[in-house]
């Protein structure tokens, strides 16, 4: 078998992902399978059949430690929370950097840091607060590279912390803490106070001085603020912390304590904890798909769960010496967490002809989830009999947990009683963004995101041509039933944005009953979704027993401010109408604008000249200030921008290319230390933002002039930026790698065009 046979001849995207992300140094597909499976024939067969895949770090790195590479096989870690002193705070920053350098994402909780205004015994007299140090951790995440991507970070805080209001509102400024997801720990006490509309106490006691900082707030007001910021900015996410702590195998183990969650929140972990991920592709356990005889193969599913649990334990043992920090090695050795999950749920239901979120779907998922958990616990018990239980395994305490009682048969319980467990944590549901895109299936527990996507191609004449690319499961169904248009699909082809949120929460809740860790979850909702709807969604998730979720509203400010979707047909283009290779000439009759930019290296001057009738960009001149960067680079960049504009490339395409140039470390450091840099994260990006700013000014001037002269001046109006209440589609966020639209699902931005994922 080769990669074409494995992924399909037409799945060029999948083959590109495999080659660029997981294939090592030109190895063949069979060599890759042998390396990644650990030379285990059973595991190799599951990989070939696409019934199970390890997480991304394992697929990319397993076996490469023998080549002298510094790698980890774990996707995610949780750092030991910083103590309330400056040494500990900066120590955690260094440990974040080291972990990122090995390829691991991190979670860190700041609930133990003093709130703003607390007395301290140094020259500052009082602390700037826990929130101020989030900038430090975000900066570290931005600076440390991971093979072409940046680190992933989750910062959390307790709902009773006095800085919680500032924490909730932090991400409403899209220039702050840009490299971290944030989540708030919501306790049962808080949620019950919300329901009763009662007061809730914010409090913190500083051990060093004995100072107690406290205040009373209306819990419903805090909850409303959480809903408002989620509605507009998709953060902070909600972690129902007591549910996290109570619904697992260690709920009765006094020596155990969760310290935080990983970047996509599917893995609550102890201090120094990490987790190895792997996912079962539910779609490939359906027999006779798209027919009246279709059914889910439970026997094969249980067999594969057993193999996958053993495989993840093998990887755990191999990876023990590879963790970046000693505290991580110690924690993993002591608790032995693995994270077996699912993907392809949306595809499975379509193959079975069942509507996602329906009573039938919930009942089936309940049955599958119980089978997975019971089988995984039995497999871990059998491994404990062969290799020994995890160090802190107290059998009686585990068997008395509500989670264990609800998810095991008598046969499995007897096995655990006799042998113990090899793992303290077994099950999770990760986003699987890149993996599911590679295979062409739905990710995690999400429904399919859309029935089709619009792709763009350019004709020989330079005209943008848009065409439909159907989601693979939709395309297969249409071919099997000779359907020519997606309007003829059955009603059970629901998608993320057409699904009622009650159904979406019902699906997450039923899976959470069988998951001892957590679920990476994003509820995608339409633009018409209200703040009140958002409050009701979170209350419903709490009542149904979910451990956490976040919301992404189509057209929210987070989408609109990052990049607005524009109709390029209405953008004035300097070289429009010329033949290929021709460049428009310009004279002195132009409109000039100037901007002084502050970059990581110093100052930069940007001059731009525009057509006096259309406002199209014609020419750009860049020069460094007395402390700026390389002048030859500036000259070269300005020449390329100018010739591109005069050759017929519109300003938005030029800016899009400038915005794809990445992050500059000096720029990041200056922004964090001085806060005076121009918008962007490197010189080309700052230039692009300045050009857009000047272009919009010119267009506004021309509009006003045209109004004065009653429309005598021929002006092609540029598209206005959408207002906050205007619908902006998922196309509003673009991939930094290929420039195509991103989708937000499973807690992660993912590109369906090139396979880029923020989370992998």
Concise structural overview:
One of its GO terms (biological process) is DNA biosynthetic process. This protein has 27 helices and 26 strands.
Structure description:
- The protein has 760 residues and is α/β, with parallel strands linked by helices.
- It folds into 2 domains: 1-446 and 508-565 and 728-760, Alpha-Beta Barrel (Anaerobic Ribonucleotide-triphosphate Reductase Large Chain), CATH 3.20.70; 568-708, Sufe protein. Chain: A.
- Helices cover 39% and strands 17% of the residues.
- Strand 4 and strand 5 form a beta hairpin.
- The protein is globular and about 90 Å long.
- The two termini are 26 Å apart.
- Mean pLDDT is 88; it is low at 458-462, 560-569 and 710-732.
- Belongs to the ribonucleoside diphosphate reductase class-2 family.
- Keywords: Cobalamin, Cobalt, Disulfide bond, DNA synthesis, Nucleotide-binding, Oxidoreductase.
Secondary structure layout:
Elements: H1 3-7, H2 12-22, H3 29-36, H4 41-48, E1 52-54, H5 56-61, E2 76-78, H6 86-101, E3 105-109, H7 134-143, E4 145-146, E5 149-150, E6 153-158, H8 164-169, E7 181-186, H9 188-196, E8 199-205, E9 212-218, H10 219-233, E10 237-240, H11 241-246, E11 260-261, E12 268-269, E13 274-281, E14 286-287, E15 295-296, H12 298-319, H13 326-335, E16 337-343, H14 345-352, H15 359-387, H16 395-399, H17 402-406, H18 410-419, E17 425-427, H19 433-439, E18 452-458, E19 464-470, H20 472-480, H21 501-512, E20 522-525, H22 531-543, E21 548-553, H23 557-562, E22 591-598, E23 603-610, E24 617-624, H24 631-646, H25 651-658, H26 665-673, H27 683-708, E25 742-745, E26 748-751
Parallel strand pairs: 2-3, 3-6, 6-7, 7-10, 13-16, 16-17, 20-21
Antiparallel strand pairs: 1-13, 2-13, 4-5, 8-9, 10-21, 11-12, 14-15, 18-19, 22-23, 23-24, 25-26
Helix pairs in contact: 2-19, 6-7, 7-26, 9-10, 10-22, 12-15, 15-18, 15-21, 25-27
Pfam families: Ribonuc_red_lgC, TSCPD
Catalytic activity: a 2'-deoxyribonucleoside 5'-diphosphate + [thioredoxin]-disulfide + H2O = a ribonucleoside 5'-diphosphate + [thioredoxin]-dithiol
Family: Belongs to the ribonucleoside diphosphate reductase class-2 family.
């Amino acid at each position: 078998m080769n990669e074409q046979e494995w992924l399909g001849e037409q799945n060029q995207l999948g083959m590109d992902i495999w080659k660029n992300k997981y294939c090592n140094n030109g190895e063949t597909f069979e060599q890759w399978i042998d390396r990644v499976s650990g030379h285990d024939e059973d595991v190799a067969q599951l990989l070939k059949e696409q019934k199970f895949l390890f997480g991304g770090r394992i697929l990319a790195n397993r076996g490469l430690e023998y080549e002298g590479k510094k790698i980890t096989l774990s996707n995610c870690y949780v750092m030991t929370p910083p103590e309330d002193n400056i040494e500990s705070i900066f120590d955690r920053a260094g440990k974040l950097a080291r972990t990122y350098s090995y390829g691991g994402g991190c979670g860190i909780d700041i609930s133990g840091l003093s709130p703003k205004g607390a007395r301290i015994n140094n020259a500052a007299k009082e602390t700037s607060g826990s929130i101020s140090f989030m900038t430090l951790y975000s900066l570290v995440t931005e600076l440390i590279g991971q093979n072409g991507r940046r680190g992933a970070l989750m910062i959390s805080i307790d709902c009773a912390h006095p800085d919680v209001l500032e924490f909730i509102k932090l991400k409403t400024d899209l220039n702050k803490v840009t490299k971290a997801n944030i989540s708030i720990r919501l306790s049962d006490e808080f949620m019950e106070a919300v329901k009763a509309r009662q007061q809730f106490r914010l409090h913190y006691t500083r051990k060093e001085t004995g100072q107690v900082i406290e205040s009373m707030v209306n819990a419903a007001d805090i909850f409303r603020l959480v809903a408002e910021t989620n509605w507009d900015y998709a953060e902070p996410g909600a972690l129902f912390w007591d549910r996290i702590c109570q619904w697992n195998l260690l709920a009765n183990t006094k020596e155990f304590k969760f310290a935080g969650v990983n970047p996509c929140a599917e893995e609550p972990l102890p201090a120094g904890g990490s987790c190895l991920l792997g996912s079962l592709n539910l779609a490939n356990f359906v027999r006779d798909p798209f027919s009246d005889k279709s059914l889910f193969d439970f026997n094969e599913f249980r067999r594969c769960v057993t193999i996958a649990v053993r495989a993840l334990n093998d990887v755990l043992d191999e990876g023990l010496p590879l963790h970046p920090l000693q505290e991580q090695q110690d924690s993993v050795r002591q608790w032995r967490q693995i994270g077996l999950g699912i993907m392809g749920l949306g595809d499975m239901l379509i193959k079975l002809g069942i509507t996602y979120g329906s009573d039938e779907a919930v009942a089936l998922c309940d049955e599958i989830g119980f089978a997975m958990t019971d089988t995984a616990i039995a497999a871990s018990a059998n491994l404990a009999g062969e290799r020994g239980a995890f160090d802190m395994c107290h059998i009686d305490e585990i068997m008395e947990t509500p989670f264990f009682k609800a998810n095991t048969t008598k046969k499995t319980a007897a096995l655990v009683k006799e042998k113990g467990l090899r793992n303290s944590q077994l099950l999770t549901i990760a986003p699987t963004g890149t993996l599911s895109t590679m295979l062409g299936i739905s990710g995690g527990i999400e429904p399919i995101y859309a029935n089709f996507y619009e792709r763009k191609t350019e004709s020989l004449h330079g005209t943008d041509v848009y065409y439909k690319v159907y989601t693979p499961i939709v395309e297969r169904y249409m071919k099997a039933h000779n359907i020519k248009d997606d309007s003829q699909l059955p009603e059970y082809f629901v998608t993320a944005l057409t699904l009622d949120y009650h159904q979406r929460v019902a699906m997450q809740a039923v899976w959470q009953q069988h998951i001892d860790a957590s679920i990476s979850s994003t509820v995608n909702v339409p633009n018409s979704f209200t703040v009140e709807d958002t409050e009701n969604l979170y209350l419903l998730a709490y009542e149904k027993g979910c451990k956490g979720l976040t919301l992404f509203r189509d057209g929210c400010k987070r989408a609109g401010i990052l990049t607005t979707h524009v109709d390029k047909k209405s953008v004035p283009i300097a070289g429009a109408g010329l033949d290929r290779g021709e460049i428009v000439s310009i004279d002195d009759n132009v409109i000039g604008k100037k901007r002084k930019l502050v970059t990581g290296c110093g100052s930069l001057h940007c001059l731009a000249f525009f057509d006096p009738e259309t406002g199209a960009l014609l020419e750009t001149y860049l020069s460094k200030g007395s402390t700026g960067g390389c002048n030859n680079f500036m000259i070269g960049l300005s020449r390329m921008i100018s010739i591109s504009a005069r050759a017929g490339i519109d300003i938005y395409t030029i800016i899009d290319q400038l915005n794809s140039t990445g992050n500059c470390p000096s720029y990041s450091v200056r922004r964090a230390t001085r806060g005076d840099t121009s918008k962007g994260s490197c010189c080309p990006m700052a230039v692009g933002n300045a050009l857009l700013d000047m272009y919009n000014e010119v267009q506004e001037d021309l509009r006003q002039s045209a109004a004065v002269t009653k429309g005598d001046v021929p002006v092609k109006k540029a598209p206005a930026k959408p207002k906050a209440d205007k619908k902006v589609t998922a196309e509003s966020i673009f991939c930094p790698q290929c420039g195509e639209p991103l989708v937000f699902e499973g807690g992660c931005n993912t590109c369906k065009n090139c396979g880029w994922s923020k989370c992998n």
